[in-house]
Design a protein that fits this description.
single chain, 7-stranded mixed beta sheet, globular
Length: about 180
């Protein structure tokens, strides 16, 4: 059975919660969702992390990307851009670009921000750029998802988004949850 890779980085848990909802949407549609994350990036050259995360999804490998049928990519926002650990992982995928492993596969993106105008759409667009270079087919959230018309929290046609608050403790709203499941 083919699977859809839900690849994310999450520091405070909001993006991980979105990934789980997107996976639920994928499985409701009859596909297998495979959750994967990426390790932290350390500023200390000698620092190493565990080969397997203590909790949560396993770390992603290039094989996970190469053998998926589609990709849902998620990251918290860092100054209007994806977080460094996810960017670091994607920067290492040139071998997949060289052999065209991702060409023609559907992809979609999701994000979480501390403030409503903290760069949700620019983060989603920054995540799309390497995927477009890989030849992936980008999918957003269509306006048939009527939550986009009335949400007071997150949600964009570029992909699901979440307003986590300045302390990163706001739960996903009903609209955000619905948009994540629909995106999946």
């Amino acid at each position: 059975m083919s699977h859809i890779l839900v690849l994310y980085y999450s520091r405070h848990g909001s993006t991980r919660n979105m990934a789980k909802l997107i996976a639920r949407g994928i499985e409701t549609a009859g596909m297998e969702a495979r959750l994967r994350t990426v390790p932290e990036v350390s500023a200390v050259c000698e620092a190493t992390g565990p080969a397997v995360p203590d909790t949560g999804a396993p770390y992603a490998t290039h094989d996970d990307l190469q053998h998926c049928s589609a990709l849902a990519l998620g990251s918290p926002t860092r100054f209007g851009n994806m977080a460094a650990p996810l960017k670091y992982f994607l920067d290492g995928t040139s071998s997949l670009w060289m052999d065209g492993s991702l060409r023609g596969k559907p992809a979609t993106c999701f994000t979480s921000t501390s403030s409503l105008h903290g760069g949700q759409e620019t983060t989603l667009l920054s995540m799309m750029l390497p995927l477009i270079h890989h030849g992936m087919i980008m999918l957003g959230v269509p306006y048939t998802s009527t939550e986009l018309l009335h949400t007071q929290t997150g949600g964009t046609p570029y992909g699901s988004s979440h307003l986590a608050g300045v302390d990163s403790k706001l739960s996903l709203s009903d609209d955000e949850k619905s948009l994540c499941r629909q995106q999946g």
